[in-house]
Every structure is written in structure tokens, then in C-alpha cells.
Amino acid sequence: MTTSSRSLGSALFPVGLLLIAMASIQSGASLAKSMFPIVGAQGTTTLRLVFASIIMLLLLRPWRAKLTAKSLRTVIVYGMALGGMNFLFYMSLRTVPLGIAVALEFTGPLAVAIYASRRAVDFLWIALAIVGLLLLIPVGEASQGIDLTGAAYALGAGICWALYILFGQKAGADNGVQTAALGVMIAALFVAPIGIVHAGSALLTPSLIPIAIGVAILSTALPYTLEMVALTRLPARTFGTLMSIEPAFGALSGLFFLQEYLSLAQWLAIACIIMASVGATLTMRSQSKPIVAAD
């Protein structure tokens, strides 16, 4: 009985970490939009990653990581994917509602889940997630109000998200949670020149500093650390399918913080997404060890 309880706890622990991470990152995204009028999406991304890298540098001490030339390349790709994901997602938020942007961005991890799937039951959860996404994204007259450029940015963020999953899992297997700190530092170096060119001295606005620190903690330092732990404990297909709940968190954050009200179809979408996540969680225990990206 004790062994069974420990096994259940081991299975649910990374799932709990992902739920906390998703709630944190979407709350941070809502807060970040308040910075757009001053420094734009480019400057907001820069401030978020710079402060997050400082926080994670102090907490996780990434200089202790033992990097080989091979693992360093993996970490660099992971960091660039992380930076691109953040930058493109914030660019999409300028013109696309939070819930819709997250749904479009989710095409990345969903593709990972579909590609990595090997069992028939996995396709049931993926199908439910797809139904949820189709209901979550407005169609008909509402779709005409979606900015195509913003949607393209969100889809680009999804591609970066897929790379983040694949390379983050391998990098995390090599150096554990310290990889998250290294990745954020690389992401900050990758995005900072864009933010500096766009926002200039506005990045030093004193009133922005507390908000930027809050966004850094909620959107980067806390969730990416938790996700890195979860990545090393879940198969790639399970991680990708569980992340289907991300659009639900985005839609709820948009509702509570940005007054973006949902239709009945979008609430049904959230139900489908949650069912897909619960199904993946219930079947996770019989799966093999975490899948690591091929060399």
C-alpha cells in the first residue's frame, strides 16, 4: 500500500508543478500587457527576461552546471527557443486576445504530442484537445476580428514552444533545474538587443521596475523552473498533452484580469481541454521513462 501511494505521488507531483506553472505564466502575461504602452511588447519581453535571469542566477547558481560542448549546444538552442517563444507570444498579444493567442501557440506542444504518440489511447486525449482548441478559437464573424499578423506571431511562438519542449527535456536531463537558469540567461541575451533598439531609455522608467520584476517572477523564474523539473519526469507525449490545459488558463486569466469574456463554445472548449489533460494524467503511470530527444 505504501509503495502504491508513493507511486501515485510520484506520478502526480510533476502534474501539480505544471498546473502551478501554467497559472503563474498566464497571470504574468496579463500583468505584462500593462507595460506595452510604455515599452512595447519588445521592451516588455526584454525586461521580463533580464530580471528573470538575475533572479534565477542568484537562486539556482547555474555556473555549477557541468557543460560539455555537446550539452552547451543543446542549452543554447533551448535558450533561443525560450526567448523566441516569449518574444513572439508578446508580439501576438498586441492584437490578439490572451486566450486565443495561447490556443494558437499551443499548436507547438500539440504537434509534439501527436508526433511522439505511440498508443491508441493517446489519440483519444489528443482528439479531445483538438476539439477544445477548435471551439476556443472564434470562427465565422468573430474570426474576422483576429489580426492575421498577430495570429502568425502566436503560431511562431508555438514552433518555438515545440523546440523548447524537445531541447529542454534533453538539456534538463544533463544539468537538471540549473538548465532553466542557463536557458533564461541565453534568452535574455538573444532578445535584449531587440528590446533596447525598440524601447531605448524607456526601459529605465522607474515605475516599470516593480511591474517588470513581478512579471519576471510570475512568467519566467517560477514557471520555467517548475516546468524544467516536470520535463525530466514526464514522457514528451504526456507533457505535450498535459499542456493542452494552457489555453484554459489563458482564457481564464483574460477573463479575470483583462475582462475578455468567453462564449458558451469557449467554456465547452475548456471542458474538452481539461478532460484531455485528466485522461493523459490517468494513463501516464503505465508509460515508460521520459522520452529524451535523440542525439
Kindly describe this structure.
This protein has helices spanning 2-32, 36-60, 69-93, 98-105, 107-116, 120-136, 148-175, 178-199, 208-231, 236-242, 246-258, 264-284. With 295 residues, it is mainly alpha-helical. α8 packs antiparallel against α9. The longest helix is centred in the N-terminal third of the chain and has 31 residues, at 2-32. It is globular and about 55 Å long. The chain starts with a helix and ends in an 11-residue tail after the last helix.
Task: Classify the oligomer.
Answer: single chain
Tally of alpha and pi helices? 12
What's the count of strands?
0
Mean pLDDT: 79
The best one-word shape is globular
Q: Could you spell the SSE succession in H and E letters?
A: HHHHHHHHHHHH
Distance between the termini: 39 Å
Helical residue percent? over 70%
- Low-pLDDT sequence parts: 285-295
Q: Describe the largest sheet.
A: none
What is the radius of gyration computed over CA atoms, rounded to a whole number of angstroms? 18 Å
Structural classification: mainly alpha
**DSSP strand (E) fraction?**
under 5%
